Predict the structure.
Amino acid sequence: MAQSTVGPKEAAETNSAQGTLVKAYRHMLLARVLDDKLASLYRMGKIQGGVFLGRGQEALSASVGVSLRNGDIFAPLIRDAAGRLAFGEVLLDSVRTYLGSRLGPMRGRDGNIHRGRPREGLLPMISHLGAMISVVNGILLAHRFKGIQETVGAACMGDGACSTGSFHEALNQAAVERLPLVLVVANNQYAYSTPNNRQFACASLADKAPGYGVTGHSVDGTDLEACLGVTRKAIALARAGGGPQLVVANLLRLCGHGEHDDASYVTPALKSSAAGRDCLKLAEGCLIAHDLATPAELDRWRSTATEKVEQAVAKVQREPAPDAGEEDWCAISTRHLSEGQFQ
Amino acid sequence: MSITYLEAIREAQARALAEDSRVFIYGQDVGVFGGAFKATKNLAQQFPGRVLDAPISEDAIVGLAVGAAIEGMRPIVEMQFADFSTVAFNQIVNQAATLYWRTKVPCPITIRLPSGGTLGGGPFHSQNLEAIYAHYPGLIVMTPATVEDAYTMLLDAVALDDPVVFCEHKYLYYHLKADRLPTEAMPVGKARIARPGRDLTIVTYSAMLHESLAVAEEMASERIEIEVVDLRTVKPLDTDTVMASVARTGRLLCVGESWPWGGVCAEVIARVASEGFALLDAPPQRLNAKDTPVPYHPNLWAGHRPTERSIAAAVRNLISL
């Protein structure tokens, strides 16, 4: 999937670290604006099912997306709007899936964050945590069979997914096959409501890396520059044949598990800790400090993002919903073997 | 020259590997060792780099196969025993089985399940799980009962664009022999009249076909002519062939080695009762394993699953109704 371009001016800058910083920030911003709009639509009762936001995790997520390149594989999880946009997912895919448009990639058959375009390297997550990692392994192994070289697969997940058998099996599998897998763990301190101390007993999730024989990296997940540095490094190492990489970022989700959750379990101490800082605001400070943007430019970028989101929502709200009467109730591609007649 | 059911499975895989560069085999001990049952004997040597030993990670084995299929490969996964596929259950029923419906991207993977009871197998090396996989939309479930079907249906499974759960019966591995590999195959999803008869229909599949045929032979001497239908695939289920047979005989007995609750026999009876009630001269019957784990000791095992004796008793009972 081609990475989306942000504009002609920025395109010239993409090769520089500073250009990447701006690009990543603008994806973060678009994701934040999109998330805010989705939350508002949810409160208005316009979205069926859950809404899962990436607030507070955009720096890490966008860093993964902008660090991948054409031909790479990306398996995002539920808080990766920024990474998806940076990887090249169009805004309409998200809005259409949340609003259940029949024109979206999932056609109303699946919703919210359960979307993707597998043939374009963007995998549609299933809800079972850790389950996408081995699927990424399979694509990378297929690349090896087909002689496709120097592609990388990145899978995003949270602290809770590290407790699953799927995580263990797949990371070990990738290590045995020495696949170019980059596992990115956003340790946002809670798996739904369960805090870290009820989830794992090691000092840091990055401590798991040596046990699998893979390289581990730790990073401050609120710091965009640091996240970009570590994801680019891990992806470069994997691409160069260094085997799987485990990136663990420390941060705090600045919202509930879903919009139905008030997150009352998050302690005040954590909220006021370094992990609780808003990565978007920190990134803005960073851009200004590096002379990469003025406050006026930041405002303009936000207006542009808002306009894009509003236009996408307005367009999708006029699109047709799926129709049970017209739905093709066939779960397999070999149509004549379908059991559809017994319904 | 003769060829066993197990050799037919090996030969089908050898042919698939030879004819299609997208095919590879992934599973525990399938490499140089040739598999726990030798179903991949010499394949790693014949096809270097395409028959890969996997760690003991059934979940990741199937997940990897799904990923490879997305990228255009045709993986064949060997579960060492069908029983262990429950560790991969999530990847099979939630990942592989939903992919096409969710995304329009087909998932051509074949998952081989060495199934069914053998002497001394016990609770965790004897299971038949076709019903639980057939329950999920998005999967094709094959249960070959003959050497010929083991060969041609495995080739069909690899060629199909959908995920196939291929339930091969371990008891048939060595017991069943044919003179040669078949050159023709029945279409996928068609049941076969394994023996014609006019008094009663037995619908069965996999190893129980052979017990049922033996009973039919025995009953012929009592002038009871049994028609035996081999389902071949349990999903899709060839209801037409079953219904046509029941129309001829008026009596239906379903025989399966697996557990009774919500199983293939229950499904066959539900369809015949709801769509062909008027064809029936007696209540449809089923014979399954007992609703307990599969016992280890041969004495208990013989009492757990249907046998020639219990099938014959069920036939006599049904004829008397």
Summary: Chain A has one domain: 8-337. Confidence is low (pLDDT under 50) at residues 1-14 of chain A. Chain A touches chain B through 46 residues (CB under 8 Å). The radius of gyration of chain A is 20 Å.
